[in-house]
Amino acid sequence: MDADLVLETRGLTKEFRGFIAVKDVDLRVRRGTIHALIGPNGAGKTTVFNLVTRFLPTSGGRILYKGRDITATRPAEVARLGMVRSFQISAVFPHLTVLENVRIALQNRLTRDTYRFWKSERCLDRLNDRALDLIESVGLGGSEQQKATDLSYGRKRALEVATTLALDPEVMLLDEPMAGMGHEDIGRITALIRRLAKDRTVLMVEHNLSVVADLSDTITVLQRGQVLAEGSYAEISRDPQVRQAYMGS
Ligand code: ADP
After folding, report:
1. Residue 43: what are its φ and ψ, rounded to 5°?
2. How far is the CA of 187 from the centre of ligand 1 (A)?
3. Residue from 112, 113, 114, 92 nearest 103 by CA
4. Is 61 in the pocket of ligand 1 (CB under 6 A)?
5. Dist. CA 39 → ligand 1 center (Å)
6. Is the ipTM above a cut-off of 0.85?
7. Where is the ABC transporter domain (predicted)?
8. b/e string for 137-176 if b means 16 or more Cβ within 10 A?
9. What is the CATH class of 1-82+170-249?
10. Digits of tens for pLDDT over the chain (249 positions)?
11. Contact 12, 61 (CB under 8 A)
């Protein structure tokens, strides 16, 4: 086993009633990298995300997380093992404040194992301190008492990242983190993803090619459910098949 690989798929396949949405995909995501999945609409990117996080059952192939076969593992267990999908599924309560949202996320992570923690006198202080650290780390310092609903779109997404980080993931899957964002928010989230990737692995689906070029160590290009090319941005943008199929030149 290659110890550098944190997530690997072998022959990953998904069929929806006879329609093959993902076909024989071998994905190799290295620890500590930012890995982007790109490709035209319908290429199978979201389906791959849903398969590796086990939100969808596979039709064929295997999924390995840190060398362990998770092809039949339940989604909650996948999250507990450290691979967490952000954005589309994370719950932000609009009418609670930033601080309340992050505190709830932190509380969710605590289980019966931490019974002693709950009983400790400083429990609330420590929960608050940890929440404030997370809020600061996503660039929301100073907005602790603002209601989530009053945040700009980009800052809401930063809050979603904070609630996801409360689960302390090793691998974060980000589904179109820049979708619908203005220039300023894109800059903020780009910086945040770069910071996250210092001690985590990031796998993201993103349409904004300049963001992909700027952030990614490795890019996998999907087309009609299959891998068309893989490599650095410089490598894939030289690939004639990619240029023709994806970039239109
Ligand atoms: P992308 O994220 O790259 O836009 P998707 O993974 O969403 O692509 O979809 C890949 C293909 O699979 C599309 O043709 C889509 O219509 C099809 N598909 C996705 N989910 C389902 C489903 N639940 N049932 C049937 N077809 C689906």
Report:
1. -70, -20
2. 30
3. 92
4. no
5. 13
6. yes
7. 7-249
8. bbbbeebbeeebeebeebbbbbbbbbbbbbbebbbbbbbb
9. alpha beta
10. 567 999 999 999 999 999 999 999 999 999 999 999 999 999 999 999 999 999 999 999 999 999 999 999 999 899 889 998 875 545 689 999 999 999 988 887 765 456 666 667 777 788 899 999 999 988 899 999 999 999 988 888 889 888 888 888 999 999 888 887 788 888 888 988 998 888 899 999 998 889 999 999 999 999 999 999 999 999 999 999 888 876 555
11. yes
The full DSSP string for 102-156 is HHHHHHHH--GGGHHHHHSTTHHHHHHHHHHHHHHHTT-TT-TTSBGGGS-HHHH
Location of each CATH 3.40.50.300 domain in the chain: 1-82+170-249
Residue 200 to residue 14: CA distance in whole angstroms: 28
**Triad 219, 209, 201: Cα angle to 5°:** 40
Pairwise CA distance, residues 12 & 38, whole Å: 17
Using a 6 Å cutoff on CB, does residue 57 contact ligand 1?
no
Find, among 234, 218, 161, 166, the residue nearest to 5 by Cα. 218
Q: How far is the CA of 42 from the centre of ligand 1 (A)?
A: 6
Cα–Cα distance between 177 and 172 in angstroms, integer? 11
Q: What is the rounded distance in angstroms from the CA atom of residue 249 to the CA atom of residue 236?
A: 13
Place of tokens 């076969």: 69
